[in-house]
């Protein structure tokens, strides 16, 4: 889970840098950030903000599943492997999103991560039966 937390902090820093850079270069007014509207945001801001927000959607299922594995003291090789696969795919997804942003590549990594977290949950349920 800590690897995912590090990813969130890293993307947050990228997002802050993009915002500061855009304001310093006068691409956008600081007033934009009051309600996130009124101006056309530069691509770097939109991309980093969306990437940051993505870390609180599907990854929430990952955090809950991992917490349950720990709380219920479940030791599972499949659970460990799929958890690391999920983290790896999320790192790749974030890299794609923040750099060249190819939609198809992003979609594939999203779905691989999604399937990984789904397997993580199915494995959790099976261990509880």
Q: What oligomerization state is this entry in?
A: single chain
Shape: elongated
Radius of gyration over all CA atoms, rounded? 17 Å
What distance separates the N and C termini? 25 Å
Q: Helix-strand pattern, N to C?
A: HHHHHH
Kindly name the structural category. Answer: mainly alpha
Tell me what the structure shows.
- The protein is mostly helical.
- Helices cover 78% and strands 0% of the residues.
- The protein has 6 helices and no strands.
- The radius of gyration is 17 Å and the shape is elongated.
- It has helices at 2-24, 32-35, 43-54, 58-71, 77-98, 103-128.
Describe the structure using short key phrases.
129 residues, mainly alpha, 6 helices, 78% helix, elongated
Write the layout of secondary structure elements.
Blueprint: H1 2-24, H2 32-35, H3 43-54, H4 58-71, H5 77-98, H6 103-128
Helix pairs in contact: 1-3, 1-5, 4-5, 4-6, 5-6
Summed up:
By secondary structure, the chain is an all-alpha fold. It has 6 helices and no strands.
């Amino acid at each position: 889970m800590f690897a995912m937390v590090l990813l969130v902090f890293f993307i947050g820093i990228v997002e802050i840098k993009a915002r500061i850079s855009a304001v310093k270069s006068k691409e956008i007014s600081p007033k934009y950030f009051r309600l996130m509207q009124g101006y056309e945001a530069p691509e770097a801001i939109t991309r980093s903000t969306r990437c940051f927000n993505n870390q609180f959607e599907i990854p929430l299922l990952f955090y809950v599943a991992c917490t349950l594995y720990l709380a219920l003291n479940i030791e599972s090789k499949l659970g460990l492997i799929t958890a690391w696969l999920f983290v790896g795919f999320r790192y790749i997804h974030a890299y794609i999103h923040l750099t060249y942003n190819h939609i198809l590549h992003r979609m594939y990594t999203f779905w691989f991560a999604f399937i990984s977290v789904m397997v993580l949950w199915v494995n959790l349920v099976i261990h509880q039966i």
